[in-house]
């Protein structure tokens, strides 16, 4: 990524992510973590006890903002302006790979290109880290922040990890606490 793009990423409030080393964790360890995470409670149970996963802890760990306003839950296409509908259709159905390629290829020589890079980056961050889903294409949930770019660095990015607040419950096959 060019220095100009790195500066934009820092301005968006995601400079801390540049310092996270590549994740090289054994698959078995990741499976154990997933099995011991209680989704409805945002709690990780370990042999040393359990602890609550909060927006603030996520923000501190990743160096992202975990205070401020939440994002809307999803985009309602019918309520978008004609210009926003064009942007919506441009990203609809994109995959993480296509976003990655586009993010690396786009220039940032003018204001319009910078804004488009910011939108692509926000979508990329959500799909790769914050709101990963089993569906590998952009959904209306991923699109919501790119239509509210003013003050985006002050938004509550830590809340994107708050699974309890997102309406998620137990995974299929996961039993309720105490059963």
Task: Describe the protein in words.
This protein is mainly α and 179 residues long. The chain is built from seven helices and three strands, in the order H-H-E-E-E-H-H-H-H-H. It has a three-stranded antiparallel beta sheet.
Any key phrases for this structure?
single chain, 179 residues, mainly alpha, three-stranded antiparallel beta sheet, 7 helices, 3 strands, disordered C terminus
Q: Secondary-structure map with pairings?
A:
Blueprint: H1 3-11, H2 27-36, E1 37-38, E2 43-46, E3 49-52, H3 55-62, H4 82-91, H5 96-105, H6 111-130, H7 140-143
Antiparallel strand pairs: 1-2, 2-3
Total domain units: 1
The number of distinct helices, counting runs of at least 4 residues, comes to: 7
The unreliable regions are 162-179
Mean pLDDT: 73
| SSE order | HHEEEHHHHH
Biggest sheet character? 3 strands, antiparallel
The fraction of residues in strands falls at 5-15%
State the separation between the terminal residues, measured CA to CA. Answer: 49 Å
Q: What is the molecular shape?
A: globular
Rg from C-alpha positions? 18 Å
Q: What oligomeric state best describes the polypeptide chains here?
A: single chain
